[in-house]
Amino acid sequence: QVQLVESGGGLVQAGGSLRLSCVVSGGTFSRTDFGWFRQASGKSRDVVGAISSGGQTVYADSVKGRFTISRDNAKSTVYLEMNNLEDGDTAVYSCNRVPPYKWAGTETWGQGTQVTVSS
């Protein structure tokens, strides 16, 4: 079974930066497309952006120009570089395959990492 472990979140002032990491164990990392997702309190999970196995990226309009997704196939790790953070970026951030991994028909997610932006 695939495991996803996110880290790097924390409390940051508006305008600040954070770099999140997602280590993926199991599966065929180098041939897999991955996405970063976020869920604010009381809201549904949204897509932040994604990176293909070939390194091409796409982003939600709300983060375009501020966030950058990258990957290191040798480390089975996906990164999310977040700059110029805003209050609206406060959420739990998770990574997953695109589409998300499933186990026994249920989507499998890691624990996520909390990002809190203070103004």
Report on the structure:
With 119 residues, this protein is an all-beta fold. The radius of gyration is 14 Å and the shape is globular. It has strands at 3-7, 10-13, 18-25, 34-39, 46-51, 57-59, 67-72, 77-82, 91-97, 102-103, 106-107, 113-118. Strand 7 (67-72) and strand 8 (77-82) form a beta hairpin. It contains no helices and twelve strands.
Concise summary:
With 119 residues, the chain is mainly β. Helix content is 0%, strand content 51%.
Strand order of the largest sheet: 2-12-9-4-5-6
Strand percentage lies at over 45%
Main β-sheet description? 6 strands, mixed
Oligomer: single chain
Gap from first CA to last CA: 40 Å
Strand-pairing-aware structural class: mainly beta
- Poorly predicted residue ranges: none
β-strand number: 12
- Count of DSSP-assigned helices: 0
What gross morphology would you assign? globular
The chain-level mean pLDDT equals 96
Order of SSEs: EEEEEEEEEEEE
Which value, in Å, is the CA radius of gyration?
Answer: 14 Å
Q: Summarize the amount of helix as a percent range.
A: under 10%
